[in-house]
Amino acid sequence: xxLGKVIGSVWTTQKEKGMEHVxxxxxxxxxxxxxxxxxIVIAMDRIGAGVGETVIITQGLPAQKLTNEKNSPxxxxxxxxxxxxxxx
Length: 88
Prior knowledge:
Structural class: mainly beta
Order of helices and strands: EEEEHE
Shape: globular
Strand order of the largest sheet: 1-2-3-5-4
Low-confidence stretches: none
Helix content: under 10%
Number of helices: 1
Distance between the termini: 19 Å
Strand content: 35-45%
C-alpha cells in the first residue's frame, strides 16, 4: 500500500470490459512528509475521494480483486481516504 495525494481526474468515453462505471483519479505517491515520490498513478476510486485528498492506494492483484470482473485491467485502486496520520 502507498500514501498518495489526488491531483486530478481522468474522463473516458470508452473503457475496457471490467472498467465500466469506474471513476479514475490521478494520484501522486507521497512519503511520510507528504513530499512527492515516484511516478503518478491512475487509480480506480469507488469510495468517493476528491482532488486534494490524501489517500491509500493498493496496486496489482489486490486492486484487480476489487472489481467484479475476473480479468479486469485495473492496476491501482484507492482503498482509503486519510483523515490524518502521525509519524514519530
